[in-house]
Amino acid sequence: MNVDIEASWKARLEPEFEKPYFASLINFVKSEYRQHKCYPKGSEIFSAFEHCSFDDVKVVIIGQDPYHGPGQANGLCFSVNDGIPHPPSLINIFHEIEADVGTPYPKSGNLERWADQGVLLLNATLTVRARQAGSHQNRGWENFTDAVIQKVSDEKENVVFMLWGGYAKRKGSKIDRSKHFVLETGHPSPLSANRGLWFGNKHFSKANAYLESVGKEPVRW
């Protein structure tokens, strides 16, 4: 099956594209995009990989599924297009960064600037029907993104994995923690953050300290 995905990823994920589940998934997604409004737009479904090649990955952040409101999703987890109001989880992420590393709260919620530095912003499910959170779950995307995480864990070393909330923690269960740095905390959503499970986690400074300790460039959050 010909999937339009960045070359370094395609070379490693080609076996997934040949599996029966993936053919079924693509047929489902094509049907959904024909019959319903879905996000992100088709050309941005694999944006996380376009902005961050396999060779460049040094941090992985795992989200659940894309934003389902108009104009929000751009293929990167937690990210929104320029000019779009910041969703509550993203607001909390930016406040924690400001408190942790001193980066001023940004105007743009577009996280391509992180992805271009080697941060893989991976949603577990890469598509969603408009205004229906979770509507494309359990159709095969999770199998695909599990394979992505497994490839990074198996073939790379010294990658920082940020697992926020129970779903991401379960998703990261196969990471080889003997050669990667895994950070876990609550989800940045208001529900979790307001219970004291997000703020003060200092994941951004911890990630950078680790990256520098293994000779990698820190991320400009």
TrEMBL record:
GO terms for molecular function: uracil DNA N-glycosylase activity. One of its GO terms (biological process) is base-excision repair, AP site formation via deaminated base removal. Its EC number is 3.2.2.27. It holds the Pfam family UDG. NCBIfam families: PRK05254.1-1, PRK05254.1-2, PRK05254.1-4, PRK05254.1-5, ung. It is found in: Cytoplasm. It is an enzyme of class 3 (hydrolase). The lineage of its organism: Bacteria, Pseudomonadati, Bacteroidota, Flavobacteriia, Flavobacteriales. Excises uracil residues from the DNA which can arise as a result of misincorporation of dUMP residues by DNA polymerase or due to deamination of cytosine. Residues 50-211 form the Uracil-DNA glycosylase-like domain. GO terms for cellular component: cytoplasm. Belongs to the uracil-DNA glycosylase (UDG) superfamily. UNG family. This is Uracil-DNA glycosylase. InterPro entries: UDG_fam1, Ura-DNA_Glyclase_AS, Uracil-DNA_glycosylase-like, Uracil-DNA_glycosylase-like_sf. Keywords: Cytoplasm, DNA damage, DNA repair, Glycosidase, Hydrolase. The active site is at D65. It catalyses: Hydrolyzes single-stranded DNA or mismatched double-stranded DNA and polynucleotides, releasing free uracil. SUPFAM superfamilies: Uracil-DNA glycosylase-like.
